Amino acid sequence: MMDLFYKGGPIFMSILSLILVVILSASAFVLFSIFYTRAGRLDKRFKGIELIKSLGLLALVIGLLGQLIGLFSAFRAVKMGEVESTSTLFAEGFKVSMVSSIYGVVIFGFTMVVWWGFKEKSTKPLK
Hints:
The protein has one domain (about 1-125). With about 130 residues, the chain is mostly helical. It contains 4 helices and no strands. The longest helix is centred in the C-terminal third of the chain and has 37 residues, at about 85-125.
């Protein structure tokens, strides 16, 4: 697991992990708020749900940015002649560059499931 973390680029993977921790914390806060409100639902003005959605989108964008910067660096190294270009090299480089974008997509998918569940819960009272 740590191997993938370093392959994906420690900077981008650290930022994505930090965003995931914030999303989990915000989700716990929203869940706590749902169960301890009088009507059992969130107020329409509550912005925590939208914060979760926005952070998920930010994770997606940062993951894709990590991939693009990784590919740019790889192509620059080939252009400068630092690395001999072969199809195996390109395939391996593309595989490594996908790690941060896959992590960002997984975080975004998780966030959308959580957001959808909280959005449904915020409009329906407890029985």
